[in-house]
Amino acid sequence: MSDNENIKDLSRRKFLRNSAVTGVAGAGLAGGFGAGTMMSSRPAEAAQNNEHHVEPGELDEYYGFWSGGHSGEVRILGVPSMRELLRIPVFNVDSATGWGITNESKRVLGENAPLNGDTHHPKVSYTDASYDGRYCFINDKLNTRVARIRLDIMRADKIITIPNVQSIHGLTLQRVPSTERVFAAGEMIVPLNNNGDYLDDPSQYWTMMSCLDAETMEIKWQAIVDGNLDNCDTDYTGRFVAASCYNSSRGMTLPEMMGPERDWTVFFDVPAIEAAVAAGDYTTIGDSQVPVVDAREQAHEGRNTFALYVPTPRSPHGVNTMPPEGKYCVVSGKLSPTCTVIEWSRVGEWFDGGLDDPRDTVVAEPEVGLGPLHTTYDNRGNAYTSLFLDSQVVKWNVEDAIRSYNGEEVNYIRDRIDVHYNIGHIKASLACSRDVDGKYLTALCKFSKDRFLPVGPMHAENDQLIDITGEQMKLVHDGPTYAEPHDALMIRADQLNPSQIYTRDDPYFAETVAMAEADGVTLETDNKVIRDGNKVRVYMTSVAPNFGTTEFRVKRGDEVTIVVTNMDTIEDVSHGFALVNHGINFEIHPQQTSSVTFVADKPGVHWYYCSWFCHALHMEMSGRMLVEA
Amino acid sequence: MSDNENIKDLSRRKFLRNSAVTGVAGAGLAGGFGAGTMMSSRPAEAAQNNEHHVEPGELDEYYGFWSGGHSGEVRILGVPSMRELLRIPVFNVDSATGWGITNESKRVLGENAPLNGDTHHPKVSYTDASYDGRYCFINDKLNTRVARIRLDIMRADKIITIPNVQSIHGLTLQRVPSTERVFAAGEMIVPLNNNGDYLDDPSQYWTMMSCLDAETMEIKWQAIVDGNLDNCDTDYTGRFVAASCYNSSRGMTLPEMMGPERDWTVFFDVPAIEAAVAAGDYTTIGDSQVPVVDAREQAHEGRNTFALYVPTPRSPHGVNTMPPEGKYCVVSGKLSPTCTVIEWSRVGEWFDGGLDDPRDTVVAEPEVGLGPLHTTYDNRGNAYTSLFLDSQVVKWNVEDAIRSYNGEEVNYIRDRIDVHYNIGHIKASLACSRDVDGKYLTALCKFSKDRFLPVGPMHAENDQLIDITGEQMKLVHDGPTYAEPHDALMIRADQLNPSQIYTRDDPYFAETVAMAEADGVTLETDNKVIRDGNKVRVYMTSVAPNFGTTEFRVKRGDEVTIVVTNMDTIEDVSHGFALVNHGINFEIHPQQTSSVTFVADKPGVHWYYCSWFCHALHMEMSGRMLVEA
Predict the structure, then answer these.
(1) Is the pLDDT of residue B194 over 80?
(2) Is residue A538 within 8 Å of residue A529, measured between CB atoms?
(3) Does B167 reach chain A within 8 Å, measured CB to CB?
(4) Residues 554-613 of A with CB under 8 A from B
């Protein structure tokens, strides 16, 4: 088993059946893990949970926003049913909707966009630390991008590639007074001008925190930091953003990265950085015009005015501010069995000169178990930390952990529950907002092993749902999910108000409307073919079960743009435009206009059809493109 | 509402709330629909179904194979939990697995494959009319393709584009003695040599049935037919395949397609066609070498020896053979409120000269309701037909329908249940096989309207699960699904035996293994870089949490092939290879080899990382590609 011995308890069912002995922890992970080996006394399989079953026709209580990991998408789940209500294509190409194929989506994605992405941390926008239902932001670790999804139409409207850094890992939002800023944590360290000059000199490698304007999606500034940035979160005052750092030893290989007992959590003073930028006290890198400030320790004599580095054991991972007031943030140790509790007001004191030792911001460091990755919260003062190696969720009381840190004899651990298996992210309902309600918690497990019928070498992940209303946690649902849900959040159903049909003035297709106007075409009524040299624009309406144009003629080699406007007005009467043997298919929902551009390179008769079942005569909803040889 | 009035009862909830009046049927659909307006007396919301709930840790009873419609994929669901266990990328590009990006998948997809597809009818292979768990076949209506999925590794291993026709709609398999043949029904009529010569002469437009060899996936023959082919099914003897035809009037527009009261069901005598092909009695079309026979009525003097055309009311849609003996096939009327029951043995009699009138093969034509689309079965002699316009499933007894057709006074209708809303396909557990068990039925509903929390203008479909063990049907689950599940089938869990890890001799990556051997590389142990002019092949292993190569160097403009072999041996310890800012990410499951080829066009340091959470030190599993300027 070699290195895999690190993956403890990979299959509890097999473990029990075979009495196999699996190692607890590999090299570099030993020591002080007593708390982590305490197992739950309740077999998860015995949970009786019918009261959480959502009957046919009943609606869910929460919207869940799930990252799709390296599927490149974002998903909306209903909670507690854990049913997938929608996939939102973001960084991927989506065959069903034509995302990545239509002109409207290409305008968002940009020219020559990659075909994939690796979404990590979906975040819904805030007003005064409550979800306001306007936007969901999501990062792409693979191609170093950040996207904004409009939550009225559930489509991305802005995607930006972040320059000067490689891999956006953490993503978080300003909470107060509202989400005016988006913070994107660059993970990999690379030469600051990555043009090939410093290939062999890792001492020249660095990464940065980036701050985006949430409305324009332009980058306001970047700040160079020590170490690889990992996860991040903001406070409840609007002043600070914090990120965990791993690889403080600046290693290039795993052994080199495993150096110190402590890396750090870094806190950025946003107004201080923006004052410097406003004063012109910044540089730029290469072709990029983004203002860059230097938040590395070496760049500051005396106290660093941009960043506070708090030593934190070991390769710290999750950074999570405790609701509802945002008094503390908890940083989960990953390679340490501890969480580090930092008080936000003390961070302010440090920046304001009231504290000297960065560690004085730490108010507790409870031992929670093996492989703590992320922490979430209920509304009763308890934290819930995911334990990757223990395959458990541990519930602990924050104030009791602080009392323990201060020397009192108090057991801060409240409960443990097995999860299946090897949990990554964890998130309780509304736990990142002022409105935390302590009802449900989702455990995003990286291995499912034997929990579902086998479906080949690629296993599902397992998103488990846990009822946290009682003293003891209760597992209520095993949810297989496609690779690889990375993070999730839940908001109340009443906190979102999506559009059921498009309005004709929707900015998502405004450029297409402008093109039609320049052609003298009224999209809502006209079915016209406009020839402009070897460019042909075909405008048509769709009303179930008819396309307004059932035949048009072009010449081989013409660049053809097809624009379809769905004039149906009843919700859910969607159409699709599918052109056979041309790789073209796209969505046209009620009152939407969609378009595609391609070169007609095959002479002959080519049928198009409606791909979205719309009517008893749906199959007859079709037409022909005639391409002259 | 205009044409949308045809969509009856689009939102039952709103209907009840608003007391709105919706039309029952539009023009061309009137008359004789009395049976269709009988509503269920049981409100679906009242169903109590906890006994069907699958508790955490419990396994499902059935594998469900779902088409993903215009998502281009196939999905595996667990039944009765209706949880999605896996997506299988087929005609789409998949960001998570690298399907469409890796060399191995491109070998299956072919050069310059489109980025999308429209999957319709998944079919699992048979031995003696029982599912044998070897393959799942699936068609692509959008780009006229057929794919075969290996059910051991759940990846497509052959994809073929069907020449001479446009749009594969129906797909079905030979059942007896085993699945040696795959039948693919061409839908759209086009000029037989579609080179631009007959653009304006629809009298030259035709379509064909295609027969593929299930092992080689080569096309054995094509048969030109009258009308547009729609759905198809085979018998239980291995001799026949049947397809429904719509647009027998050969119209180009919807009004022209709505002509006759009857179109037809066409039956092909496979041995007769293959005897003609073996005798050299065929033609070819254009560049294609596929043998083409003419099964149109006009091509035969006297009795057509290839095809039997049975007049069938009206725009008939689903064709479904009744298990377990395969005595009848039921063709669902779509624009007629009837199903047509045809006895397979009489089809044989007709071909053998024993019957004169094609309609003498019809043994019943029950009135079932408005908009019958597809029919499925239990093991107690009952048929279940989906009614699109009624938004219902109707249960009727086949032998009673035959008695009624023969003049007896008998009520063949057993039950009706509302579904939500506008059902397309329907399928009961094992209903396409000898092992039909009459337990569950899935109703694939095209509209979900108000059944789930709203998620914007694009609504989920609704796959409902119905318990059919009792006299009355019982709705037990509402399942939202992403656009657009078209068809589904369920097989017993014991009928499938997928691999949990790859074997090193898997043919899926055999070409890559051969390339390594030619380079003198042992994939299982070597971490080597081979330079061959400006081509660079980088071979590396992966064992959690390490890539065998953590640094390699190329020159700008090199064509780089990266080959990764996952030497982990524990199931579910998958890795991904993600190269930042290069649009490259792909799966490497235990014991699998995967590869990708690209041009290194950006000088600088480029990190790659493991995208599949594999270990506590997963984030540290990374390496660098150094590109010299």
Answers:
(1) yes
(2) yes
(3) yes
(4) 556, 568-574, 576, 578, 580-585, 587, 589-592, 603-607, 609, 611-613
For B257, the enclosing helix (H) or strand (E) is: helix B254-257
Contacts of B477 in chain A (CB under 8 A): 56
Tell whether B541 is within 8 A of chain A (Cβ). no
Please state whether A252 falls in left (phi above 0), alpha (psi between -120 and 50) or beta. alpha
Radius of gyration of chain B (CA): 26
Chain B residues 259-298 within an 8 A CB cutoff of chain A = none
Can you tell me the distance from the alpha carbon of A154 to that of A149, in angstroms, rounded to the nearest whole number? 6
Please say whether the beta carbons of A556 and A603 come within 8 A.
yes
CA distance A251 to A257: 5
- Rounded to the nearest angstrom, the minimum Cα separation between B305 and chain A is 30
Please name which of B351, B205, B193 lies closest in space to residue B285, comparing C-alpha atoms: B193
Contacts of A221 (CB under 8 A, 6+ apart): A210, A211, A273, A274, A277, A282, A290, A291, A292, A293
Is residue B443 within 8 A of residue B487, CB to CB? The reply is no
Supply the pLDDT for residue B259.
Answer: 78
Rounded average pLDDT over A126-144:
98
Contact (CB, 8 A) for B196 and A603: yes
Distance CA B138, CA B120 (A): 7
- C-alpha distances (whole Å) from B198 to each of A627, B192, B193, B228, B444 are 11, 9, 9, 18, 39
Check residue A40 and give its pLDDT. 38
Whether the complex's predicted ipTM is more than 0.95 is answered with no
Q: For an interface test with B, which of A580, A610, A618, A627 has the most B Cβ atoms less than 10 Å from its Cβ? A: A580
Per-residue pLDDT, B118: 98
Neighbours of A342 (CB within 10 A): 25
Q: Can you tell me whether residue B166 is helix, strand or coil? A: strand
CA of B481, closest CA in chain A: separation in Å? 7
Q: What are phi and psi of A586, to 5 degrees?
A: -155, 160
Query: Are the C-beta atoms of A574 and B455 separated by less than 8 Å?
Result: no
One-letter amino acid for residue B389 of the chain: L
What pLDDT score does A53 carry?
87
Percent of chain B with pLDDT over 90: 91
Contact list in B for residue A252 (CB cut-off 8 A) is: 550-551, 624
Residue A384 vs residues A65, A379, A472, B461: alpha-carbon distances, Å: 19, 12, 12, 35
Tell me, yes or no, if B111 comes closer than 8 A to chain A by beta carbon.
Answer: no
What's the rounded Cα separation, in Å, for the pair B2 and A341? 63
Is-contact A23 A6, C-beta < 8 A? yes
Mean pLDDT of A444-469: 97
Residue in A with minimal Cα distance to B25: A616
Which domains occur in chain B, in start order? Answer: 9-59+118-429 (2.130.10.10), 507-628 (2.60.40.420)
Cα A174 from chain centre: 15
State the Cα angle at B327 between B325 and B329, rounded to 5°. Answer: 120
Q: How far apart are CA B576 and CA B584, in angstroms?
A: 10
Q: Does A140 touch chain B (CB under 8 A)?
A: no
CA distance B138 to B118: 10
Q: Does A32 touch chain B (CB under 8 A)?
A: no
Q: Does a cis peptide bond (omega within 30 degrees of 0) precede residue B58?
A: no
DSSP label at residue B405: H
Q: Hey, are the CB atoms on B56 and A44 less than 8 Å from each other?
A: yes
pLDDT at B240 over 80: yes
Phi-psi region of B236 (alpha: psi -120 to 50; beta: other; left: phi over 0): alpha
Query: What pLDDT does residue A50 have?
Result: 63
pLDDT in tens, A557-570: 999 999 999 999 99
The tens digit of pLDDT for each residue in B452-473 reads 999 999 999 999 999 999 999 9
pLDDT, mean of residues B583-611: 98
